[in-house]
Amino acid sequence: MAFQAGGQRPAPRPVSKTPEVQAYLDDYAASVEAVSFPSLVVDHCWDVVLTNSAFRSLFRGVGPHPTAMPDDNFLRFVLFHPDAPAVLGDHESSWCLPMLAHFARTVESRGPDHGLQAIRRDIAQEPIMEAAYRHGLPHWIRSVGEDAVEQDGAVRPLLHPDPRWGATDCRVVAETSRTLEELGCTRLTFVLREARRAPSRNRRARREASHLSVVPAVG
């Protein structure tokens, strides 16, 4: 990754041509950097606007990928990066399916959108993921309840490369200030929890993008 913990804080990606708004984001980036928990700001397509050092440290061991780096587009990372299960514990049920369901709702609510449709096309190219999107998600939501789709407040397992944390949990805290809301952006912070979990087999796991088991393979 381009920036590691302890390095120079990267500037926010430009999301507005208004100097006042960009100045706000520069200052907001400083406030995010001051947080000790992994934190990022994403737009409605999950494109990453800014991250802090704790976020970059969490994903420092992730290998290169042309389209699915965690500090580029976090949804693509969760869905398509083969290293995602090495950091995101219980990857399929705790991260992939909830975010896929959240994405489906965003597509339905926003209508035509170039960024969202690009992700949708990539999902369609993976047969099992496409089957999960079309057929598996409704069954999964009925099984776990509507609350599982929500980001804010969700408790999800992490496999932190720092041994002081190791296999643990985080609570996802979603926040949107007035300015971020006007930009269509949301801040997500992964509040690491003290409770330790048993080591997960996902620590060494690598997966293909079409790994989902919520539905059987098609074809």
Short key terms for the protein model shown above:
8 helices, alpha+beta, disordered N terminus, 219 residues, 5-stranded antiparallel sheet
Report what the structure shows.
With 219 residues, this protein is α+β, with helices and mostly antiparallel strands. The protein contains eight helices and five strands. Mean pLDDT is 85; it is low at 1-9 and 200-211.
Short description:
The chain is α+β, with helices and mostly antiparallel strands and 219 residues long. The protein has helices at residues 19-33, 53-58, 74-80, 84-87, 91-110, 114-124, 127-144, 178-182; strands spanning 39-42, 48-51, 155-159, 167-175, 186-196.
Question: Can you lay out the helices and strands and say which pair or pack?
Answer:
Blueprint: H1 19-33, E1 39-42, E2 48-51, H2 53-58, H3 74-80, H4 84-87, H5 91-110, H6 114-124, H7 127-144, E3 155-159, E4 167-175, H8 178-182, E5 186-196
- The helix-and-strand class reads alpha+beta
Enumerate the spans where pLDDT stays under 50 for 5 or more consecutive residues.
1-9, 200-211
How are strands sequenced across the largest beta sheet?
A: 2-1-5-4-3
Q: How many beta strands in the DSSP annotation?
A: 5
What's the helical proportion of residues? Answer: 25-40%
